[in-house]
Records
---
Amino acid sequence: MPLNLAPNIPDGDGFYDELLQAHQGLSKEQSEAFNARLILILCNHIGDREVIRQALRAAAG
Amino acid sequence: MVGGRYEVAFRLYPYRKVAEQDMEPRRHRVVIVGGGPVGMAAALDLGLRGTPVLLLDDHDGPGLGSRAICFSKRTLEIADRLGCGDALLEKGVQWSVGKVFHGAERVFEFNLQPEKGHKYPAFINLQQPYFEKFLIDEVRRAQSRGAPIEIRGCNQVTGLRERSDFVELDVETPDGAYQIEADWLIACDGARSPVRDMMGLGFDGRVFEDNFLIADVRMTADFPTERWFWFEPPFKDSGQSALLHKQPDDIWRIDFQLGWDIDRKVELDPAKIRARVDAMLGEGAQYDLVWTSIYTFQCCRMEKFRHGRVLFAGDSAHQVSPFGARGANSGIQDIDNLGWKLSMVIDGLAPESLMDSYSDERVYGAEENILNSTRSTDFLTPKSEISKIFRNAVLKLAQSHEFARPLVNSGRLSVPCVYEGMPLNGPDLLNQGPRQSRVGAPCPDAPTGQGYLLNRLPAGFVILTIDADAPAQVTEAGVSASRLALSAPEDASGALADRYLGAAASGVYLIRPDQHIAARWPEFDETAMRAAIRRAVGKD
């Protein structure tokens, strides 16, 4: 299955708010550690190395 | 002066003058330089095949100190083929529980339950001098049965000249120098290989350097037989990582990773070492310091392991970090690969070019080891800020989530190389055959109803049939392959079928003398078998 780059999250504004909320009160260092953990958790959930590779490319811009 | 670079643990081959020292140079079939585990395994492997070997070592026994302490399953299987697997297993320590710490926090604990149906466990811990001694004991037994092996202690090679099809050597002894000639030379003379230097050959691809402080301590107190590994240990001045694991004779091995820029003399001060060990073992721990050393390593390899009539094996050819026990273990696999090939070339059964496949296959193995070792190193000593953030995220997640535990990398234990896509390989036509027994892989062990499979493989090339017909022997271009006939129902556990048939009803394997799989089919096909044998000995 190719990486889905079309809108896929219901209530996008709500999601975005939730993401920022999760970082509320964290120092820059804590936020970076949080992001790293989040990336690892999401990559594991995806599992498909090819999809992850496409995501890495898409993120590189 | 010959020898004296290090103390020996056992004097097993004291210097004795031989008549040759007062004669014109004599030609030997094979001369091995270096009597460490790799050189000794080479002498034994070739000698057992009836190929005359002369081993020269500049000392008269294995060096003192535990050094390589983790011997992997494949090494034990090779040692078994050479005759000393049982002795190693009996003396070695087996462990299955490991604990991983990050600072003072415990990250997780694992229990490596061994897969059933193998004669040998995934690894044993054993001091290197014992490993060497068991090999030498086996050399002595082989000699008494007529194996053409000679060991000369305190014989140091000081000069080397390559001729068209042989090598001339200058050898220094306590009675002065003499010369010998060798059709083939195997350089097993270690990371600082004098042979490599004398030939002016480089050691390329240095990617990593570090220092390890090693302390062997004797403790008789109850301490569990477990492997403890610390990332960023909490004890004072303990470096980037630390490792504690058990050896035979109540000895515990402690490794501290100190980094590159250190003062060796200061670090080796016993008071300083004791302070570190005290901090690790806790107040009041009773122990004796048995042996300490600082070990420096780098990751690198020679571009090719064959240079004319000179073959490099073990640390002289490649070096890796100690994470994953890939040093001595890969050296033993070098010999496993080299022995049968050199023996066949010398017997005129294979072209000299077969020795290039030794280089190709083992360079491939060395690359795999360097890759694994580099990845472990990147995890252990993150090279950038973001790499450290990810490393610590993995360690944090591993405390509560199983998915992150396989990402924790404190060294991936040495597993044998699969010679995938290499030129000696024949066809892999067993439809949906198991991946672990694909062409290029070492034969997985399995129960057969009459002992373990690897024990039952005849010497030389083997045609393994499982529920398939084949002649008792096939001889092609002078090379014979003998059949081992098995039937899946003989093994009630089902492991034999799982490992060699998968979904197939029958299988026919061509197995090389080093127990690597050369080709496989669902049924015996004589034309295909003959072609695969020719290919496997480099006659294609």
---
Amino acid sequence: MQGFILAIAGMFVFFLGYRFYSKFVAERIYRLDPDYVTPAHKYKDGVDFVPTNKFVLWGHHFTSVAGAAPIVGPAIAIYWGWGPAFVWVVLGTVFAAGVHDFGALVLSVRNKGQSVGTLANKIIGQRAKILFLFIILILVLMVNAVFAWVIANLFILFPSAVLSVFIQIPLAIWIGYLVYRKSKNMLLPSIAALATMYIAAIIASRVPALQIDLPRYFGGEENIVAFGLNGVAMAFFVWIVILMIYVYIASTLPVWKLLQPRDYINSHQLILGLVILYLGLFFMGSREMTAPMYNADATTPWFPLLFITIACGAISGFHGLVASGTSSKQLNKETDARFVGYLGAVGEGLLALLTIIAVGTFFATQGDFLSSYSSFGAAGDIGLGTFIQGAGQLAGGIFIPPDIATTIVAVIVVSFAATSLDTAVRLMRYIISELGAEYKVQKLTKKHVATTVAVGSSAALALLPQGPQGFGSGGYLLWPLFGTSNQLLAGITLLLVTLWLKRQGRNYLVTFIPMVFVLSMTLWAMGRQVIFDWSGLGGAEMNLLLFLLGSIIFVFACWICLEAYKAMRRDGQQPPRDQDASM
Amino acid sequence: MDFKKIIEMYDAVLRQGHRTEIARELRDEDDLFFILCYSDMLGIPNPAFYYTLELYPHMLERFHEWHLRMGMDKSPINGFRCC
């Protein structure tokens, strides 16, 4: 199978999904009304509620939801062959993520632009709000630990990318200063900053002296540096500590100083990266998928783990937060929701599809693939690195030398992961403060105390799990937990949309079926891992940390299923409300 | 669509999230300024009331929005009957 044929096949299904299925959902199920006065008009305040052009809003929605997660998941899941990953990404996007993101947007628009958390409180009750906060807390904790590890790993694998990533910080501060203190336009300085970063990447990939290679400085794997840690483990430790200090500072600074200018530069990178790689794919033409369609030798079964390995890119609860938190307050017309919500999910699906193709075409032969992706654990370790090298090869289609392209793709992926990291730390700080206020622990409501707790727990989680290669290789063990908490969030949003549709007396199967599917797969996968992989009962050694975290998430999942069942039953006893009534 | 419009659209997409944040920070600063100006009426001594008094007519239009945002459903000041 040729890579570009797979891309065309995926795009064709996405097109059909948007053209027909989303149209059906918009007209028959959500029944969008072009005359409905959206919150953006009703509560217009120039800050949160601002009517926005649908193309601009889609672009913003897409750049907010797309990050490193839709790359990491498929790069690991291709372990079972490209077939299962491809089918789940394509069908998941069309039937689950599309209606989920679209539904969250419509539900919020019909409820004064309120967020999913507030709606859960209103529809299910106070318990649901606390549950919701805890799930988000776990989700962001996973994001912090996994992405800190991912970045450290990429710095070690691609030392030529380090310089560009660090140059971005002063450049972003400089842009923030120009824009918000000197009222300059952001477009030109940010393009100049991007050019500077890429020039640095090009020079660094050719000049070894500019490659910041910590394992080499520490004397490599054979050399024990301190505390029994070898050079590589020490490099992990140092990078994770540096990253944690960075996110502490970044997440306590005012957003305009660093976070926003950096996001702006990263949005260029996202768009540029997607364009270059898809162009490369189509111009290169004949690149065979060397990964097998189905890996019959996989020792870890794909069912049901596939569904929590690929969360972003197939269905992700995080999108519901963005859709109901910001996009719903800026929707100009209710009918725009289909374009913004559904196509936002499709955009992320395209990123996941690209990842499958980049990894699937990277290896020279199927034997190479199978020896590299020898186990699920190995897939976790090498997935992202393989994507970067594969993407470097794809960029060769438009005549960019592979070593330079690889460095630039590494810079792009690290930038995404870094954005996810400091946004998640900031979010975690807010949630800790909110929980502190809820349970009357005054100290936790303070900015620096909350940030210290957030950063400390994330660092501990990134450093504690022991992976197969010793210290510092445990980061990806947490990946299934990240996928699970993300899917649980999606389950809650789908439940809310289903209840809303039920109350309106409409056919709620379009959201009910994905909800049942996502929640049951999550429960199944988590239960299986907790009992057979982490508890010590199934032959594998006990892993206390993962067992505890997994059990907590498992209990949350059961809790949500129970709440869903109760809410559906309670609701069944009420007569349906009229068409335009809000919740 | 010409090139200039495409660039404008692209810029608008990238700026969208930032515009909200900046508008919010600006509004927070304005809110603080309001509190400083009205502090006397809220029972907090204001050494500069003689000067801030002159600003009231300019601030009246936004007073209603402000007290709603501050969590007060009705105007906290007897003299101002905005709602």
